[in-house]
Amino acid sequence: MVVITNATIGTRLLTRVTRIWEKISEKAQGTPLAYKLSFFITLLVVSCMLLLGSIIVQQQAGQLRSQLSEQGQTLVQLMAQSTREPLLAGDKLALDATTSSFSNNGSVLGTAIISLDGNIISKAGVLHKENNPLTHKFISETISESGTSTTWKWQPLTGLRRQTVMSFIEPVTYQNVIAGYAMVSFSESGLEHSTRQAVQAISGATLLIIALSIGMAFILGRRITQPIDKLVEASRAIGNGEYTFRFKERRTDELGVLMQAFNEMAEGMLEKSLVKNALSRYVSPGVARQILSNLDDVSLSGKRIEGSVLFADIAGFTQLSEQTSPEDLVRMLNRYFTLITCACSVNHGIVDKYMGDGVMLVFGAPEADRDHAFHAVSCALLIQKLVASENLKREEQGLSPVKLRIGINTGTMLAGNMGSCDRMEYTVVGDTVNLASRLCGITNGEQIVISREMYMRDDVKNRVLAGEYQSIRLRGISKPVNTYQVEQLTADYQEIIDRQFEEICLSETDNLHEA
Question: How many CA atoms lie within 13 A of 299 on its CB side?
């Protein structure tokens, strides 16, 4: 009976713990892992202690009940043997002496000798001092059921508290003839008191263990989650671009393997970042991203696109190079190329290549840009403004000004990786590109020349002010090519050039201060 009770209690307790666990898990999604782990460890310890305590209490109560049953069976048997002769002889005095002697035990509530019809012949103890009809009714029912022991609730009429009573009944027999019954009744207050003491002791021990487990669980949780917290910090650092982050701790467990793998991943990402930064110095950032995102498919190929091409070079460069030392000439070219690159970048273009004193810019590749023609013209005007500002500085230093010639064209062209399998570059080719180069060649210094087809585009004509320049004849083309000279943007768009100019100048100033 005890085993079944313990199993039932354990099952119910585990079911409740599981439900509590599920509810807590749903509400603790944003709680730090160390706190959740500490709480779950504490909950597990408390659940185990409660389950263990309930089993111990049940076992102790069962043992006490078994001892009480053995004691009651022994006493009632002795009492039945002692009252055999007085009961048959009708010796009331001897019966009273016997019941009185057996009722002197501290845990015995009362003793009685009962006739076959259920009347009490002799009695002693608290249980039978008063004439309680409920007690007499219980005794009659117990005799008729022919049980050896029973537990019942005794409610005294004298105002005493209600008690749980265990009564043991033994027939008084002589030569297999039942002459009456002997009954001994015990109070279970001692059993209840022992059970309460056990519960209090176990509760105290449980509270102490809970207090200790909370501290130990928190310490253990922190020790377990510290490497995880470091991994979280590392992932955030990598996400912010701090690829130099490394774990210096050396571990031999699974977390150590994970940390080592994380270090190797960070090292690989650092190398890729360095390669990307270095590659961006030789090709445009857009091309660099395209190459790095398709490392397994870098091949000679091209596709037709709609884009714009800008050529710019220095007018009278041969004469200028004769008057300038090679070191100063390189320094000057780098300075102007830097300004041109800045103007190209803010207008969504890429630097295709540097060619001696000239540069080739592409708009609308490798990433599509529906305003590539307008961005190309804006870039040219911005270059003019930056070069003019730089020339003022050169004149203050007593140096000759630099004049740029710019030619722009828009149309269909072939864009992709071109060259050989061992060495290739991303560029654009086609008649559109050739015409842009020729337009650059026919301009005088400080002029921007575009083709008539480009100027007649809606996205250019409505935003750019330009005048007819001249017609040129090209080899292989029967009709002359009409050109226009760009003056400036319309009033609604001129502020774009001014804002970009200020941003580049401010960036140049910040870089100078940092240097």
Answer: 4
Asked if residues 465 and 490 have their Cβ atoms less than 8 Å apart, the reply is yes
- As a whole number of angstroms, the distance between CA 67 and CA 77 comes to 15
Burial call 384-395: b when 16+ CB within 10 Å, e when fewer: bbbbeebbeeee
Strand partners, 71: none
Give backbone dihedrals phi and psi of 353, rounded to 5 degrees, phi first.
-165, 155
pTM of the model: 0.53
Nearest CA to 141 among 123, 167, 172? 167
SS3 content of the chain, % helix, strand, coil (to 5): 60, 20, 20
Q: Which residues pair with 479 in a beta bridge?
A: none
Please give the Cα distance from 23 to 235 (Å, whole number): 30
Tens digit of pLDDT at every position of the chain (515 positions): 333 444 454 455 446 655 654 565 555 455 666 667 677 777 777 788 778 777 877 887 777 778 778 888 888 888 888 888 888 888 888 888 888 888 777 678 888 888 887 788 888 877 655 566 666 777 777 776 666 667 666 666 566 667 777 888 888 888 888 888 888 888 777 667 777 777 788 778 778 877 787 777 777 767 767 777 777 777 787 777 777 777 777 777 777 787 788 788 888 878 777 777 766 666 666 666 666 666 555 555 678 999 999 999 999 888 888 888 889 999 999 999 999 999 999 999 999 899 989 999 999 988 889 999 999 999 999 999 999 999 999 999 888 889 999 999 999 999 888 877 777 788 899 999 999 999 998 888 889 999 999 999 999 999 999 999 988 887 766 788 899 999 999 988 989 999 999 999 888 776 655 54
Q: Domains plus CATH for the chain?
A: 1-78+190-236 (no CATH), 83-187 (3.30.450.20), 299-514 (3.30.70.1230)
The residue assigned the tokens 């041109």 is 340
| β-pairing verdict for 404-419 and 301-314 | antiparallel
Within 295-445, residue ranges assigned H as helices are 317-322, 326-346, 372-396, 431-442
Sign of the C-alpha dihedral computed for residues 51, 52, 57 and 62 taken in this order: positive
Q: What is the DSSP string of 259-327?
A: HHHHHHHHHHHHHHHHHHHHHHHHS-HHHHHHHHHTGGG--SEEEEEEEEEEEEEETTHHHHHHTS-HH
